[in-house]
């Protein structure tokens, strides 16, 4: 994928409207399904976490096997050989070692609902893959205040109607008191406090992609994470005022879930 320029993020992410969870699905503007340079820093990080702590960052169930094998068809020139004898969890790990985004695989259950059946997530934004495996989309989102109530039905309808062979994407953002990619909760990284300042805050951008895998009844969900100093992002014209307005209008329960102190809107200005 092309590098994300911090100076352009404000235009992409911030608006003059009050805060609201936004669906924001669109056709892709970037080339998702190709291998990345194995020497780039993000892939080096991925190799580290998958070798040092695979139990935290890799989850597999046998229901995922046909979904993963169909997903591999999206990569015609893989750097490793995958055949019917290859163990599915090993194949998922190999994919994750060569492809920069985090990978989540979902499959319809007997009731027709998508459930998370496997994943390789090295750069989570303060969530644990082990707690999500086996759950439906609604159950995965249950801890996010108001999300199911406001967008749950629209998300389910979108996934049900996702056209085969097409990719759709959206952006999601958050703030953090560190510039680490891997914000797994077990790492106990610094959190924002009422004293947090813009100079010590980072913007986390999740660029998400969804791809229907019709033969297996599955779904590939990819998350490409980049992390940017907030002070650089806010150099864009009007960005400080827009972000401060979004934070002031953000419901307290959502701000608490995102780990953003209510006082931080004043720090932005």
- Number of structural domains: 1
Distance N to C terminus = 33 Å
Strand content: 15-25%
- Compute the gyration radius: what is it? 19 Å
Number of helices: 12
Taken from the alpha-carbon principal axes, the silhouette is globular
How many runs of DSSP E, i.e. beta strands?
6
| Main sheet strand line-up | 1-3-2-6-5-4
SSE pattern, N- to C-terminal: HHHEHHEEHHHEEEHHHH
**Average pLDDT taken over every residue:** 91
Largest sheet: 6 strands, antiparallel
Q: Report helical residue fraction.
A: 25-40%
- The residue ranges in which pLDDT falls below 50 over 5 or more consecutive positions are none
Structural class: alpha+beta
Could you explain the architecture of this structure?
By secondary structure, the chain is of the alpha+beta class. It has one domain (20-268). It is 34% helix and 19% strand. It has helices spanning 6-13, 41-52, 54-57, 65-71, 88-98, 129-132, 137-140, 147-161, 230-233, 239-249, 252-258, 264-268, and strands at residues 58-60, 102-108, 114-120, 167-176, 202-213, 218-229. Strands 1-3-2-6-5-4 form a six-stranded antiparallel beta sheet. A hairpin with a 4-residue loop joins β5 and β6 (218-229). α2 runs antiparallel to α5 (88-98). The longest helix has 15 residues, at 147-161. It is globular, with a radius of gyration of 19 Å. The mean pLDDT is 91.
């Amino acid at each position: 994928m092309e590098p994300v320029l911090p100076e352009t993020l404000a235009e992409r992410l911030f608006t003059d409207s009050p805060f609201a969870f936004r669906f924001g699905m669109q056709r892709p503007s970037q080339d998702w399904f190709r291998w990345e340079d194995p020497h780039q820093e993000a892939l080096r990080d991925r190799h580290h976490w998958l070798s040092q702590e695979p139990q935290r960052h890799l989850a597999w169930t046998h229901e995922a096997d046909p979904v993963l094998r169909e997903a591999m068809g999206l990569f015609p020139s893989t750097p490793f050989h995958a055949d019917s004898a290859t163990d599915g969890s090993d194949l998922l790990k190999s994919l994750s070692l060569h492809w920069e985004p985090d990978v989540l695989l979902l499959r319809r259950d007997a009731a027709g609902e998508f459930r998370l059946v496997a994943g390789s997530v090295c750069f989570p934004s303060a969530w644990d893959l082990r707690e999500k495996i086996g759950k439906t989309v609604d159950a995965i989102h249950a801890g996010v205040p108001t999300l199911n109530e406001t967008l749950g039905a629209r998300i389910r309808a979108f996934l049900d109607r996702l056209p085969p062979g097409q990719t759709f994407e959206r952006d999601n953002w958050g703030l953090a008191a560190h510039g680490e990619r891997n914000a797994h909760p077990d790492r106990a990284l610094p959190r924002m406090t009422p004293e947090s300042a813009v100079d010590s805050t980072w913007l986390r951008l999740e660029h998400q992609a969804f791809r229907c895998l019709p033969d297996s009844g599955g779904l590939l969900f990819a998350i490409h994470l980049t992390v940017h100093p907030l002070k650089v992002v806010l150099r864009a014209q009007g960005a400080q005022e827009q972000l401060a307005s979004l934070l002031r209008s953000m419901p307290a329960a959502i701000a608490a879930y995102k780990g953003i102190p209510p006082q931080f809107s004043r720090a932005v200005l």
